[in-house]
Design goal:
Blueprint (H helix, E strand, L loop, with lengths): L2 H26 L59 E5 L3 E7 L14 E3 L6 E3 L4 E7 L6 E4 L3 E10 L15 E10 L16 H8 L3 E6 L12 E3 L3 E9 L6 E11 L9 E6 L3 E2 L1 H5 L4 E2 L7 E7 L10 E12 L11 E3 L3 E3 L29 E13 L7
Parallel strand pairs: 10-20
Antiparallel strand pairs: 1-2, 2-5, 3-7, 4-5, 6-7, 7-8, 9-11, 11-16, 12-13, 12-17, 13-14, 15-16, 17-20, 18-19
Length: 401
């Protein structure tokens, strides 16, 4: 048998098998008329929801915490108070104070930073590296001192303040702030004895001076200049009005002048702070120095002189208390007004109250001693230093708009 015959027999067999498979498929698939109806799909019933409620109270509870045990302290325990560290000392002088503070300020064996300790804001003026002591020196009115006055004493109060810096770059400290109060006490009145100088006779010159003694007056006046001012309290911006006078008694007519005036916080012109607002034999500097309206008033009579000064206070003194000390002088009313016998105010130039403005030409330089003004032909002049105070100058309150 040839290969061609075998191929034909194989192809016939495949065709017969395919026909048989098609006939079998047609037998299994029913026609459209013979197919059953599809089953009905039922909608799900609506689900009813309700909030669960408890008709019986819950009986479960959180378990009770365990009972705390009583702390067991060591027997005979006593909290010991640390002794105060004696690390600050002060020496009060006539016009200054010296304060010494150990760098171990707290007495705990750890030195503090020098920059953290100040005397009322003033840094240390010196440091002893061997003894580890900081030194502070100040005038009595410096470094934020406060002055308290009683009937018989002055008390200057300083505060040594330690403010610890944070440690490193952190914001923590391991020491506390410390303030140490330092007081310097001074007597207001001193008794001077002359027991070793008691002459048995009265010198003629002493009798003469007593006869020629004059009664000077320096007092605050009301705004209308009619009466002495009953109060010595002012506000910043007020005008303090002063009247100077001299009683003549049996003398020939006199003219009173004011050579100088000094403001201090105590009745002593040799202390600081001090403000010389009049000097050079009658030149009122205050308006020139500060631009105020302070000035002399025109004379109404020779034995009286009036001037006004705008109220002020010292910058570092919170009390606002000042004393005004003026050097008063009387000369013959017939004496000419000159460089040593004048009353000059500054307002776009120096002006003398009597109109003799040439006498004020030396106010910006030195008026010197000038010529002597003669009284009754003797060449004598009467002078007296007089103080008014304490004057209290308070800050003017601000009103909110």
């Amino acid at each position: 048998m040839s290969m061609r015959s075998l191929f034909c027999l194989f192809c016939g067999a495949l065709a017969a098998a395919a026909a048989a498979a098609q006939s079998d498929l047609n037998w299994r698939i029913p026609s459209a008329d013979q197919r059953p109806d599809p089953p009905e799909v039922q909608e799900p019933a609506a689900v009813q929801q309700e909030k669960q409620s408890f008709h019986q109270p819950l009986t479960w509870r959180y378990p009770e915490p365990p009972a705390e045990e009583e702390p067991h302290y060591p027997p005979d325990f006593e909290l010991k108070a640390p002794p105060a560290a004696a690390s600050v000392g002060a020496v009060c002088g006539e016009s200054s104070v010296r304060v010494e503070a150990n760098k171990d300020l707290l007495g705990i064996g750890k030195p503090v930073l020098s920059a953290d300790v100040t005397l009322g804001g003033c840094p240390a003026t010196g440091e002893d590296p061997e003894t580890q002591v900081l030194v502070f020196e100040s005038e009595l009115h410096g470094c934020g001192s406060q002055l308290l006055m009683s009937e018989d004493s002055f008390v200057y109060i300083f505060m040594l303040i330690y403010t610890p810096s944070p440690l490193g770059d952190s914001s923590i400290v391991r020491t506390r702030e410390v303030s140490v109060r330092i007081e310097c006490h001074y007597l207001r009145k001193h008794d001077v004895s002359s027991a070793l100088l008691k002459p048995t006779w009265i010198p003629f010159s002493d009798t003469k001076v007593s006869e020629e003694n004059l009664d000077f007056s320096l007092r605050l006046m009301t705004d209308d200049w009619q009466f002495p001012r009953p109060s010595t309290q002012f506000l910043l911006g007020d005008m303090m009005k002063f009247e100077v006078s001299v009683k003549q008694f049996h003398h020939a007519p006199l003219r009173v002048t004011v050579d100088s005036c000094v403001a201090t916080v105590v009745p002593n012109i040799d202390t600081v702070p001090r403000y010389v607002f009049m000097g050079n034999n009658g030149c009122l500097f205050d308006s020139q120095l500060t631009g105020s309206s302070s000035r002399f008033l025109p004379r109404s009579q020779d034995d009286t002189l009036q001037f006004k000064v705008e109220a002020f206070r010292f910058q570092q003194d919170e009390s606002g208390v000042i004393y005004i000390t003026c050097s008063l002088r009387a000369t013959a009313a017939t004496a000419a007004v000159d460089v040593t016998n004048k009353a000059c105010s500054f307002s776009n130039g120096w002006m003398e109250v009597s109109g003799s403005h040439q006498a004020c030409s030396c106010c910006d330089t030195d008026c010197g001693t000038g010529s002597q003004s003669h009284l009754t032909g003797t060449g004598s002049r009467w002078e007296q230093e007089t103080t008014v105070g304490p004057i209290t100058v308070k800050e003017r309150p601000l009103q909110k708009k």
